[in-house]
Specification:
The protein is of the alpha/beta class. The protein has 13 helices and 8 strands. The strands form 2 sheets. A 4-stranded parallel sheet has the order 2-1-3-4, with helices on both faces. The chain has a 4-stranded parallel sheet with strand order 6-5-7-8, sandwiched between helices. The radius of gyration is 18 Å and the shape is globular. The two termini are 24 Å apart.
Length: 240
């Protein structure tokens, strides 16, 4: 099966190892993985900041870059949710309407692709310790992803998965929200971290590095004994 990667801007710049680990997992599942080096951004940052026309220009390039591929997989429910749910609004009554409709059916968040398309849950990963899972707002509400990541984590050897209180509550990132409303954002991250600590977990895992970046920033600032991990990094752990 041929898979084309979409690597979001901040993962490309700040967390490239997660992208490489996603490739490792997909290749272990016998996928032929390709990466279009012309790709840039999905347009979400501009759209969230109110620059709709600029976002549409970036989205038009995204449409062009991925027009002929069967499967597009990204390690970010936030970006996938934006493409699925907001591209139809950006291109409403436009010539690209059918192209957008097709794209929405071909783009998948990483864990969603593993469980819903490949139907493989056990990737032979191993990670000793206790972990809790954070449902990102985008994964839960925009992509309807809930059980898939948990099913994948339950097959990780040595990992004990414990549900934290209010696991569906936002971490406080919300893109520009964390900049415009910093005190509220930090308080939300504090609450998320405390709920994770109350489970006795060593790791907090999610599908979205944007959330984990927010949470990890507070963890590092306060020297808290908790580690954040993207699920692709977990699934690529413990291989010989």
């Amino acid at each position: 099966m041929k898979v084309h990667l979409f690597i979001p801007c901040f993962i490309d710049q700040l967390y490239p190892q997660t992208a490489f680990n996603m490739v490792k997992v997909l290749e272990k599942a016998c996928c032929e993985v390709s990466y279009n080096t012309n790709q840039t951004c999905c347009g979400q940052p501009a759209f969230n900041a109110g620059f709709v026309d600029e976002a549409r220009s970036v989205a038009a390039k995204f449409l062009k870059d991925f027009d002929t591929v069967d499967y597009i997989v990204a390690p970010s429910a936030s970006c996938v949710g934006f493409v699925r749910n907001y591209y139809p609004k950006l291109f409403d009554n436009a010539a690209a309407h059918n192209q957008v409709k097709s794209l929405g059916k071909r783009v998948y968040e990483f864990t969603e692709f593993l469980t819903e398309v490949l139907h493989i849950h056990n990737y032979g990963a191993a990670l000793e310790g206790r972990a809790t899972y954070h449902d990102s707002c985008a994964a839960l509400r925009e992509c309807r992803i809930k059980e898939g990541p948990r099913q994948l984590l339950n097959f990780v050897k040595g990992l004990e998965l414990i549900e934290m209180k209010d696991n569906e509550t936002c971490c406080g990132f919300g893109g520009t929200f964390s900049v415009k409303f910093e005190p509220i954002s930090i308080a939300m991250a504090d609450q998320k971290i405390q709920n994770a600590l109350d489970t006795g977990s060593q790791y907090i895992i999610s599908t979205d590095l944007s959330c984990l970046m927010q949470i990890d920033g507070v963890i590092r600032k306060k020297n808290i004994a908790l580690k954040t991990m993207h699920i692709a990094d977990v699934l690529a752990s413990g291989w010989e």
